[in-house]
Amino acid sequence: MIEIKMPRLSDTMEEGAISTWRKQPGDKVAVGDVLVEIETDKAVMEYEAYQAGTLAEILIPEGRNADIGAPIALLDDGAGSPAPAATAAPAEKAAAERSQPALVANTDSAAPAPAPAGTASPQPGASADGHANGGSRQIASPLVRKLVRENHLDLSHVTGSGPGGRIIRADIAGLLSPPAAASAPPVAGVPGDVQTAAGPTATAPAAEVSAVPGPPVAGTTAPQGDDVRGSHEAPVSQVRRVIARRLSASAREIPHFYVTAAADAQALMDLRATLNAQLTDGGRAKISVNDLLIRACALALREHPDVNVSYGGDESSVMLIHDRVNIGVAVAAESGLIVPVIPDADTKTVTQLGAEARKLVALAGERKLTPAQTSGGTFTISNLGMYGVEHFTAIINPPESAILAVGATTREPTVVGDALEPRYRLRYTLSVDHRVIDGALAAKFLRTLTSLVEHPWMIIA
Amino acid sequence: MTIMTYRQALHDTLRAEMLRDDSVFLMGEEIGVFEGSYKITAGLLKEFGEKRVRDTPIAEEGFAGAAIGAAMLGLRPVIEMMTINFSMLALDQIINHAAKIYGMFGGQASVPLVIRTPGGGGQQLGATHSQNIELFYAFVPGMKVVAPSTPADAKALLLAAIRDDDPVLFLENLALYNTKGEVPDADVPAEIGRAAVTRPGKDLTLIGYSRMAHVAAEVAASLAETDGLDIEVVDLRSLRPLDRETIVASVKKTHAAVVLEDDWLTYGIGAEVAASISDGAFDYLDAPVRRVAMAEVPMPYSKTLETAALPSRDDVTAAIRQTLAAIGHRTAPLALGVPQS
User: Cys-Cys crosslink for A380: which of A328, B47, B105, B335, Cβ 3.0 to 4.6 Å?
Assistant: First the structure.
């Protein structure tokens, strides 16, 4: 009997909700079959079987949450002895780990080998290489073991997503904090995804992930429905909980300040109208003000690389200056705010940016964004112009250090020479992390951005 | 730079070395009047005469022995074994004499001998004429074994082999003779024992030599296009000495490797490469090293079966996808090579 456990499907995931069981008890399961759809903080993802067998029992029903590593179902692989402890649904970590060795023997031969007899009893005193709980050996790749040694990580709450449950580097990306990556050793070529580590700044993400998230405490702080306000309870979705946690941390820990500027957007609107007329004639997709702004911000970040940075945390003596300009675009999806990222936005044309942004927005709507598409950002743009908002301020999306809040482009009476003339005007506000960016730098960045908006040929030049 | 075939590069290099050094001469079956079974020695008998381009009887052990003697006394013989399969008739001369003389007799005589010979299946030549047994020679200290995969390397490594003072088995490949590539005009010998990173990448290291280095480059280019994968290709170029340093450095960077070989899997060259990775880059591996090799059968004559027995581009692609899946790199939309039941 094999325990299927809640996998770690994204860096910031701490628990997952069972969205849909695609197999029911009694169904045959082949390697690669989709067992279940799991809702994480970012997306609904399909989870495939790594072992063959028959689904014996579902431990977590649809709509319920489970911590990473908690058993969610039992798979009968013909090895008998149903794990008795596992029927107690909530996360029993020790029990969860016990059945591991039986899974591992057949990891690399594609054929499901019969598990060795007598796997029911755990082996006491077995090697505890790189993992805290005694008992069975946790299977991790050599690379993971090396990173565990060097960074003093704890794997006991990490679920392996490799063959047979092997813990692979991708599974611990969230445990490797940004400062560690900056000062650390010879594993070249990975800084990009290391920065996507969970949590704001560098408040020891390791602790954040390995801290056992207890069952939600009922009572005490939870709001109660009452008649005075005519309220009723509604479930808080996974996405909403992550938004709450991350934005609270950002607002609490980052000393924000805000700089607002207004640009004459007449030339920008004229350029867009001309371009779109010709693009439409050529059968190509139109571009939006936002597409132009993405590129303008990318160019401004190129000119002011000190804005394209991440604070390393109070304990760190370094901050990260990002050489790549990866721009996040805040999307109001039905399930809540999500920020897909356009990598290397400074190297792409406005048309490319527009196409990429449209694709990401569509994926966000379908909740199909992959973790890779929502991580690695270095700057975010949030645009509420389409709702007619004049201007607003946004909360920084850590580990980034600045976010641009964009208002509507509206026609306003403008003084030209000595006369009043109706011209388009655009207001935007940059929220800045004062720990790494001072007011003058923020102002210079906005001056560059405004100059680009007012001389829009420079955006597409 | 001139674009030419692998065959032409070998021919031109032999000719250039014969012009440069009077002590270089050729021996082999049908290399003179018939100009070589694969026409590498075309025109050379006419140009250099019977003294330096010698047709021999069908007696591999005999002419290998004669060449060893000539080499000990200061000449630089380049002998052609019509295919590597026939070199087995000269195994005793090559392994017990050519590879041993320098060491056994206190360095009194070295053996600057080059044994040119093609390996490779896929030509419907049957089980005894389609083998890849370079391992026999790569196994033996005292030998050097080089295996170029491109016309440029054919030239650079043949120059190096002829100028080297030790016996060198120079492995050619039937499937490569007509492949084309740029060849530098200058005569610059390669360093024997150096692999080449022919395509830098970060997702996975793909290692091959001879024909499979060629296949590796093609598969890497095609997966870059279809899947956006960034695969590093290492062409071993030399099987002994083996450039472990380059292999290990690459795997340390990519954390995963697939090794390709045209010979059989069990005890093959790939096993040595995989062991070297385990020795040198164990702590950097995120997945087991996978090997792609020929089916463990004597090569069938039937075209269909022969094609099935040889490692294909699809086999290589499947091994890459499996390895990448094992390290959580799920770019491939297709099944991950896991048989669907």
Answer: A328
